[in-house]
From TrEMBL:
<keyword id="KW-0963">Cytoplasm</keyword>
<dbReference type="Pfam" id="PF02367">
    <property type="entry name" value="TsaE"/>
</dbReference>
<keyword id="KW-0067">ATP-binding</keyword>
<keyword id="KW-0547">Nucleotide-binding</keyword>
<dbReference type="GO" id="GO:0002949">
    <property type="term" value="P:tRNA threonylcarbamoyladenosine modification"/>
</dbReference>
<dbReference type="InterPro" id="IPR003442">
    <property type="entry name" value="T6A_TsaE"/>
</dbReference>
<comment type="similarity">
    <text>Belongs to the TsaE family.</text>
</comment>
<dbReference type="GO" id="GO:0005737">
    <property type="term" value="C:cytoplasm"/>
</dbReference>
<protein>
    <recommendedName>
        <fullName>tRNA threonylcarbamoyladenosine biosynthesis protein TsaE</fullName>
    </recommendedName>
</protein>
<keyword id="KW-0819">tRNA processing</keyword>
<dbReference type="GO" id="GO:0046872">
    <property type="term" value="F:metal ion binding"/>
</dbReference>
<keyword id="KW-0479">Metal-binding</keyword>
<dbReference type="GO" id="GO:0005524">
    <property type="term" value="F:ATP binding"/>
</dbReference>
<dbReference type="InterPro" id="IPR027417">
    <property type="entry name" value="P-loop_NTPase"/>
</dbReference>
<keyword id="KW-0460">Magnesium</keyword>
Amino acid sequence: MIPHPTCLSLDSAEETTRLGEALAAALFPGLLVCLRGNLGAGKSTLAQGIGRGLGLRRMASPSFVLLREYPTSPPLVHGDLYRLQEEEIPSLHLDEYLSQGYVVLLEWAERFQATVFPDRWDLCLETPFLDDPDQPFDRRILRAWGHSAASLSSLERGIHRFTSQEQERKGQR
């Protein structure tokens, strides 16, 4: 595990989506991606970006069905734990999806203990500027951790891809 998170400032929902698209290229079979943050912090936007990066036009919210499977490469399971209690989460059999080579992407991942899954990204979105009129309303801070050598390396690749693409975009303006 990395001792300190990688931190990024995201200035808009569009930038958050582009981050998700870049991170999608770094996913690998058996990776657990835990999205954390307050209501409205951008978890669904980031998840949608990951889906777009995997070639999905649209990802339906899993809020009421809890999990949705997508035949991407690698295969994806998108879940939303908002309505679940911690003791209900084992019934989702996330470990089985991971052992079958799925990437498991979870919103509201703070609802369960993910520490038993070493191949994991923790992506925490924060909105510390909501009350600051001098900051863009959509600005978010992402704190990202990888918890195994493989997950840290892939996370670093995804973030590097994003920052390189953003530098190119800003240089073209």
